[in-house]
Amino acid sequence: MPKTDLLQGTLDLLILRILALGPNHGWGISTRIRQMSKEGLNASQGSLYPALHRLELNGDVRSAMKPSENNRRSRVYTITAAGRRRLEAETQSWEQFALSMKRVLLGE
Amino acid sequence: MVHRVVARIRGLMHRSQAAAEHDEELEFHIEQEIAANVARGMSAFEARRVALAALGGVTQTKESVRDIRSVRVDAIWQDARHAFRALIAAPSFSGVVLAVLMLSVGASVSVFSIVDAVILRPLPYAQPDRLVALSEPERTNGFPTGNDLLVSPQEFFDWRERQDVFAGLAASAWGEITIKAPGEDFPERLPTRSVTANYFEVLGRTPLVGRSFTTENEVAGRQHVAVISHQLWLRRFAGDRNVIGSQLPGQLAAFEIIGVMPPDFRDPDDTAEAVQVWIPFVPPSDARIRGNDFGYYLRVVARLRDRVSVASAQSRMSGIMKDLAVEYPRWIEGRVARVESLDSTVTRAVRTWMLMLLGAVCCVLLIATVNLANLMLARGMARRQELGVRAALGASRAALVRVLLVESIMLSVSGAALGAGLAWMSVGYVRASLPADFPHAADVAINLRVLAMTMGVAVAIGVALGLAPVRQFVGATTARFAVGSQRASSADRGAVRVRGWLVIAEVALAVVLLVGAALFVTSFVRVTRIDLGLDHRNVLTLRLRPLVRPTDANPGQAPLLRTLDRVRSIPGVELAALGGNGLPLRGDLLTEDFSIPGGVADGDIALNQVSPDYFRTLRIPLRRGRAFTDADTEKSQAVVILNEHAARRFFAGNALGKTMRWKRYGERTVVGVVGDIHYDGPEEPTRPQAFIPIVQTKTSAATLIIRTRAETNNVLPIIGQAISAEYPPGGVAPLHIDVQPLGHYFGELVAQRRVNMRLLGLFGLLGAGVALVGIYGVLAYLVAQRTREIGIRLALGARPLVIVRSVLALTGRYVAAGLFAGTLMAWMLSTLVRGLLFGVQPHDPAVYFLVLITVCGLAALAALVPARRAASVDPIVALRCE
Fold first, then answer.
1. Which of B43, B281, B589, B626 is least surrounded by CB atoms within 10 angstroms?
2. CA–CA separation, B263 vs B232, rounded Å?
3. Where does residue A11 rank: exposed (0-12), middle (13-18), buried (19+ CB within 10 A)?
4. How many contacts does A have with B, using Cβ atoms within 8 A?
5. Which chain A residues touch B34 with a CB distance below 8 Å?
């Protein structure tokens, strides 16, 4: 299955979705995106961190430096209530969008 | 919103810590990625390479995180550097802008520092708005100024006793004392005020050190106490607090120092020469008696009681004055009591003048701003391609605005800084050229208020100018800039219209400034060309004032006459004479009451005691009869010479052989009539004058008037030797000498006009010059805009002359509109300064004609280069350039 580049604006949605499952660090998030999309989506790691910081400035996620498995500190991100609301709203509109695309493309 | 701000501020404040944490985060990511890659079976080297590639460059990632986190300080700094480079890259543009700003800001800061010191700053007293000045001008006069503000002691004491509207009423009189400490060679003259004991109390100021006077000090014998100025305290006593009780070595009497005033204390009637010493005013023995001698020499200041208005105080004082007029009919005759706010009496004489200067300098600043807006517009046009490219590359509109704003603010602030520097250098010069009686002249300086104003104006100009080109981009598409087309679009036509208005405004303001300049230059020329009736050039005056009264041991007049004889024999001295009781143009004059036997007329007449060569030395022409000679002695016939004015007024022009009587000089026969002189200055009318031989009086103080042939500096030491031969230092008759060329006093009289002429002339030139640059700039731009059109027309066979004519016609329209508006404004504004003009009407046709011609000439000059450029457009190049 070929890897698909992300549509503009969908990275935020993916990050929020992953974090809704539980707090995670940047590397963990990028791994989970690959896993959950069954290697179908390739979140460019270069755009991941700017996106995380942007989300934090927006108040959708919080972060804190925490010790990790291998004795190094890592920044761990947690979704906020505002982030959950945004996830919900954007998931709905994404589903709406995907449905519409499907109808048009498949002529349903 | 709040956490966003907090996060950004944190990002700013803990920048290094935040950066370290981000680095740590990325390192953690890379390590995890490498570990995962190794687990998939890659070599360590390969695992690292792939991990880094996946991140897409560590540095880029760091950068983009920082962009999100930090406030745009970096960006602004970057803009500043960019702006600096852009300004350096356009040296002629930046140079013109800086020069225009420097000159206009420099001029306005200088003028504002004067205006600030003179009329804006509140008087340095407690509750200055409760202070009033009292005067008794003659009813015929309008608002009193100068000498009309003086009050006689008789009135002052009666007012003080009868009034119930003032909390206090104080008086002060001009004076000076001469001090000389034992070791010093030369005495020092100190400007002094004799003041009533409550003077400082009424003004609401107390000494910094020591105390002020009590009413006890107003009694003769106890008056030898002094309060000194802060400046004198620092200069002569090194600011020593133990100065209280020490002596101020006056040459006539020593004064015990009892107080030191704070540094900012000024007298209400302060001038360039700040008062150094205050001594008690001891009322003369006849201060309560209304005899024959009129003497007005007190300045009276009063503090209103609570809840008393100036108007009610005025009506109370008018009532008191009416009562006095009934009690002393001949004395009060024709005089009224006037109460008005102290502030307005101090500055009235110069208020119109100051406001006019302020207005003129505002015109200059306006022209400069208009011109700069024009330049910025042109530059904005020239840069549309660059800005378009930036916009296409993703710069937001806000970023473009920021770039332009940073650039123009940078430019205007540096221009203002240069202007402040210029003003700082010139303010000393301006202060020195102010008239000597200018109020608060000593306080004229650039202070924080002035600097704050400068910077405020600069930033305002910067923002205004920065926004001018921005407006061009609003509503326009990115693509249009990027094309950088020279074709005129509708937006361009809008810009052209704006420029048209700017040119009209510039021309109009330049006309106003030039009319002002022409009016004041004409006034100055008329004043200096007026025939004074005497020749003040090459005349040196030495005022000789013995510091002690003549006694048996001190013969009085004899050394004076012997000094004159010595001076006359000095080579280089053409003529020399003595004149007592004042000197023409110097501002001092004594009048004496006289009567004419047979009683046809009596009154007072200005009277000088003079030596025989007086008229020849000053070149006052003899009209009838004879001048004085050495044959007029103490024992010969008592004689008098009148001027034509007096002869006409008292003897219907037929004065020779008539008799006049003075109380002090006895009966005298008129033996000659001389020409009239403008004794008080070119703008003052002539007055009746009488001259009597100095040898027939007891005068021991006079002014030595010397017409020199040689360079004054060469003669002066020899004159000095002649004087000290007769008045040996340390002898029985210590002398105070003021040396000035007579021309100096004339210069003082026309100083205000000279300053006015110079400043307004300068502003006129500045305004005209800047307007010239502005017209040139706009036309050059228009021609550049139409290069293609002109090319087509030339290619189709239009003659260059037609092209030139079309450019000139465009100029003509703008200039004509500007001339019309400017003339209208000048016409209305000039009537406001009618009182400041001399010998020229505010609507003098010649002045307006000259200005119109000048502006037309300048406009033609400005249009010449662009017109020639238009005519020399090469059609091929013009058509190919797109």
1. B43
2. 10
3. buried
4. 69
5. none
> Does an H or E element contain B662, and which?
strand B659-662
pLDDT of residue B487: 45
Map B129-161 to HEC letters.
HHEEEEECCECCCCCCCHHHHCECHHHHHHHHH
Using a CB–CB cut-off of 8 Å, the residues of A that contact B are: 25-27, 30-31, 44-47, 49-50, 53-54, 56-59, 65, 68, 70, 72-75
CB B229 within 8 A of CB B276: yes
pLDDT digits (tens, 9 = 90+) for A5-44: 556 567 888 888 889 888 888 888 888 888 887 777 766 6
- CB contact under 8 Å between B68 and A57, yes or no, is yes
Interface with chain B: mutation pick from A39, A49, A69, highest number of B CBs within 10 Å: A49
**Residue A54 with chain B: CB contacts under 8 Å:** 68
Question: Which residue has 């003669």 as its token pair?
Answer: B715
Nearest by CB to A27, from B28, B56, B65: name it.
B28
Q: How far apart are CA B342 and CA B335, in angstroms?
A: 20
- Phi, psi (degrees; rounded to nearest 5) at A72: -110, 155
The reply to whether residue A46 touches residue B65, judged by beta carbons under 8 angstroms, is: no
Task: Give chain B's radius of gyration (CA, Å).
Answer: 38
- Helix H or strand E encompassing B740: strand B735-741
Chain A residues inside the 8 Å CB shell of B69 = 53, 57
What is the SS3 assignment for B176?
strand
Question: And the tokens for B784?
Answer: 């550049």
B31 close to A (CB below 8 A): yes
d(C-alpha B285, C-alpha B283), whole Å: 6
> Which amino acid, B833?
V
Which residue in chain A has the smallest CA separation from B61? Answer: A46
Q: Which residue type is seen at B176?
A: E
Q: What is the pLDDT of residues B470-491, one digit of tens each?
A: 665 544 444 444 444 444 444 5
Q: What is the DSSP string of B232-268?
A: HHHHHHTT-GGGTT-EE-BSS--EEEEEE--TT---T
Provide the β-strand partners of residue B335.
B138
Measured between CB atoms, does B20 come within 8 Å of chain A?
Answer: no
For residue B50, the one-letter residue type is: V
Least CB-CB distance to A72: which of B28, B56, B67? B28
Pairing of strands B188-195, B277-280: parallel
CA B500 to each of CA B30, B774, B777, B813: distance values in angstroms, whole numbers, following the listed order: 63, 11, 12, 9
What's this model's pTM, rounded to 2 decimal places? 0.68
Interchain pair B60, A56: CB under 8 A: no
pLDDT in tens, B800-857: 888 888 878 878 888 899 999 999 999 999 988 888 888 889 899 999 999 999 999 9
Q: What is the pLDDT of residues B649-679, one digit of tens each?
A: 888 888 899 999 988 889 999 999 999 999 9
> Quick one: angle between helices B712-726 and B557-568, nearest 10?
150
**CA neighbor of B582 nearest in space, from B677, B490, B649, B448:** B677
Q: Which residues of chain B have pLDDT under 50?
A: 71, 474-490
B293 to chain A, any CB pair closer than 8 A? The answer is no
ipTM summary value = 0.80
Please report how many Cα atoms fall inside a 13 Å half-sphere around the Cα of residue B446, on the Cβ side: 23
CA–CA dist B851, B767 (Å, integer):
13
Cβ atoms B287, B130 nearer than 8 A: no
Which own/partner contact pairs does B526-530 have at CB distance under 8 Å and 24+ positions apart? B526/B838, B526/B839, B526/B840, B527/B682, B527/B683, B527/B750, B527/B753, B527/B838, B527/B839, B528/B682, B528/B750, B530/B678, B530/B682, B530/B839
Q: A57 CA to chain B: closest CA distance, Å?
A: 5
Residue B78 CA, distance from chain mean position: 42
Identify how many contiguous H helices and E strands chain A contains and give both numbers: 4, 3
